[in-house]
């Protein structure tokens, strides 16, 4: 039996670089890795506001989506602010129930640096510094064994390398589970240059 897929959690405050890091990790890894972005699922799919406490659907929805992708054989990168006050119980349950490797990373960036990075984005989100301050939680760690803190002094390449190697994904072959199920992908796999 092959090794179960890897679960990677990348967390941090708004503007910490977590989305850019997670996207680059997946790009460098290749096919077979699902990227689950908190902002997309919560804001776009559910159109749910943050801070709803026990009434929020997003925490169970995100971890349920991650679980479904893992069970289908995909490595999963789950990224977002994922505040412990709303997500810790769901994330810990996901981690404890996953039979494969788990790697948690927290981008620890000061509030001043998150503002600077936000201002330098190609497309900054339309929020004020005051709103970002309301969202900001200093060093909001999950407190699980092996959680890796990536300091703000780390550049993108260092953060991506830390996640790829710390999770073990750098040593795993990139291959979507699709070829084992899909005739079209099986046919493509036989063509030169198609994984």
Helix and strand layout, with pairings?
Elements: E1 7-12, H1 18-29, E2 33-37, H2 38-45, H3 58-71, E3 75-80, H4 84-97, E4 102-108, H5 111-119, H6 129-135, E5 148-151, H7 156-167, H8 183-189
Parallel strand pairs: 1-3, 1-4, 2-3, 4-5
Helix pairs in contact: 1-7, 3-4
Q: Which strand order spans the largest sheet, edge to edge or round the barrel?
A: 2-3-1-4-5
CATH topology: Rossmann fold
**Could you say which structural class the secondary elements and strand pairing correspond to?**
alpha/beta
The helix-strand sequence is EHEHHEHEHHEHH
| CATH homologous group name | P-loop containing nucleotide triphosphate hydrolases
Residue share in β-strands: 5-15%
Question: What gyration radius follows from the Cα positions, in whole Å?
Answer: 17 Å
Q: Can you name the CATH architecture?
A: 3-Layer(aba) Sandwich
Helix count, DSSP H or I runs of 4 or more residues = 8
Give the tally of structural domains: 1
Protein name: AAA domain-containing protein
InterPro entries: P-loop_NTPase
Organism: Actinoplanes xinjiangensis
What does this structure look like?
With about 200 residues, this protein is α/β, with parallel strands linked by helices. The chain has a single domain (about 5-190), classed as Rossmann fold (3-Layer(aba) Sandwich). It contains eight helices and five strands; from the N terminus they run βαβααβαβααβαα. The protein has a five-stranded parallel sheet with strand order 2-3-1-4-5, sandwiched between helices. Helix 1 (about 20-30) packs across helix 7 (about 155-165) and helix 3 runs parallel beside helix 4 (about 85-95). The radius of gyration is 17 Å and the shape is globular. About 30% of the residues are buried. The mean pLDDT is about 90. Pfam families: AAA_33. InterPro entries: P-loop_NTPase (IPR027417). This is AAA domain-containing protein.
């Amino acid at each position: 039996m092959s090794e179960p897929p890897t679960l990677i959690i990348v967390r941090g405050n708004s503007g910490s670089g977590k989305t850019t890091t997670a996207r680059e990790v997946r790009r460098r890894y290749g096919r077979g890795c699902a990227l689950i972005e908190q902002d997309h699922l919560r804001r776009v799919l559910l159109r749910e506001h943050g801070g709803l406490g026990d009434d929020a659907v997003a925490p169970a929805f995100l971890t349920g989506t991650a679980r479904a992708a893992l069970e289908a054989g995909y490595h999963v990168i789950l990224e977002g602010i994922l505040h412990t006050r709303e997500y810790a119980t769901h994330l810990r349950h996901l981690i404890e129930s996953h039979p494969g490797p788990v790697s948690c990373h927290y981008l620890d960036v000061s509030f001043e640096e998150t503002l600077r990075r936000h201002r330098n984005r190609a497309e900054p989100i339309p929020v004020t510094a005051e709103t970002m301050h309301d969202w900001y939680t200093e060093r909001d760690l999950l407190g699980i064994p092996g959680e890796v803190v990536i300091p703000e002094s780390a550049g993108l390449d260092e953060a991506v390398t830390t996640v790829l190697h710390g999770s073990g994904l750098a040593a795993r072959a990139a291959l979507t589970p699709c070829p084992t199920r899909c005739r079209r992908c099986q046919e493509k796999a036989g063509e030169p240059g198609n994984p």
